[in-house]
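$ ./design --mode recover --in tokens.txt
reading tokens...
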């Protein structure tokens, strides 16, 4: 473990989703989605208190009615408290870098 960190954890995850008849403004179609992500959180003593952080990044890919859909996000949080055990005050920033890809269907 890093010497300046008192507590820390890393999460890796996958979330899968499938809707055989998803409905949006532009129609109805099959929608498989896949999300993979990782999170690093921890805390360390600073003076009389604790500094905590939670950093998370996700990539999402899939399709809707045979049109590719991709997206990503980076979320950063920091604040006071032990993020593994206590309630805390935090500042949050999220940076969506979502992109939407479409392929023309040859019919």
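writing sequence...
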């Amino acid at each position: 473990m890093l010497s300046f960190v008192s507590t820390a954890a890393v999460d890796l995850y996958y979330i899968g989703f499938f809707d055989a008849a998803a409905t949006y403004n532009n129609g109805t179609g099959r929608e498989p989605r896949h999300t993979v992500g990782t999170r690093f959180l921890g805390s360390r003593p600073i003076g009389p208190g604790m500094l905590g952080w939670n950093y998370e990044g996700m990539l999402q890919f899939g399709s809707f009615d045979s049109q590719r859909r991709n997206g990503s996000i980076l979320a950063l949080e920091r604040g006071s408290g032990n993020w593994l055990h206590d309630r805390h005050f935090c500042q949050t920033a999220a940076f969506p870098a979502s992109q939407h890809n479409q392929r023309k269907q040859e019919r």
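exit 0
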